[in-house]
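ok so heres the complex, two chains, lmk if somethin looks off
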Amino acid sequence: MSNDDATVALLAAGVLDELDREVFESLARMVEDTDPVPAGLVDRIGMALTIEALHADVAELRLDGELALAVRTDETSIEAGTITFTTDVLTVMISVHAEAGRVRVDGWAAPAEAIDVELHQGAEVISTISDDDGRFSFVDIERGPARLVLRRLSEPTVPVVTPQIEL
Amino acid sequence: MMSDDLVEPVDTALRDQGDGLADQAARAVLAYRAGDRGQLAALVQVMTPLLWHTVRAQGADPEQAQDIVQNVWLTLVRDIEQIRDPRATLQWMLVTAKRAAWRSVRRSRDEHVRQAADENATEWLTAPVEDLPDSVAVRSERDQALWNHVRALPDRCRKLLGLVALVERPDYTVVSQALGMPVGSIGPTRGRCLGKLRAALDADPTWSLS
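and the predicted structre for the whole thing:
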């Protein structure tokens, strides 16, 4: 065994110390800086898990017509517009307006009844209840990917989830 | 909405975790079964970076890697009632991620659709020595010295140390075993890989003087 081998063997058998800890901290920083976890990945996973958790009862919504709101995330403008989602049990129309760098979402669901509406953005959930005509709105909302989860009070165990849209 | 600068606090939270990820994962699985999804949501934040780098270290490109990591989480939730030993959750997720990455990389190579050079890949943890960059994201001369010695280690040692560095001591064994390294390759003693690195660092005045 050469001196080098003996040194390595001795160090290998040693207990981890402060210097090893420092080595790991530097190494972890290099790994994170060199190849960072993509922005938004954690949020997207959180959202996917939320949808998955609801999935047993989910009616996936189909998009009607042009996806006017689906501006790309790398564009700075927000397109105000209206989109409609439909399922067998519910039709939802929403319109989005820019308001001082943030957005306002107005929606209407039919057939008309009181509906519990959640706006999911990443791990954040904001909820409201529609009026008896099925109208609801969210104000002062951050831009970014979002989706709605709607629960009819007449059928609370069958939520309706919209595809993700870019507000 | 959660901001995009989540990476830093997540990383800090991950390293400051008093007990290990394996314990936290076990608790999250049990809570989820009991109807509390909050703990799993928190786990996604602290464990996703480790899964990401595990997948990237197998050579998966960024698009593949994002899909793989998300799928590992979805598979966990779909099979969550079938997990017999919740304490094995971390190990299972790491092994699942690693195998999915292998399959994905092999498929890409078969289809000859490898992306253009992807310089940021955590692949540098495992790339052949002649393909390694001279420097990665180093912040100081001391980092550069460390990188020079890490570069000189065998592939498997680079991968082991690069991933173990992301977790706390209670998880060293799980991470190394998931990588197919023998028990005792790191912790409670340094093991060969860290031993070699320390020998090189101890002999390097650039490192030891600072």
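quick notes: Residues 154 and 161 of chain A are 16 Å apart (CA to CA). thats all i got rn
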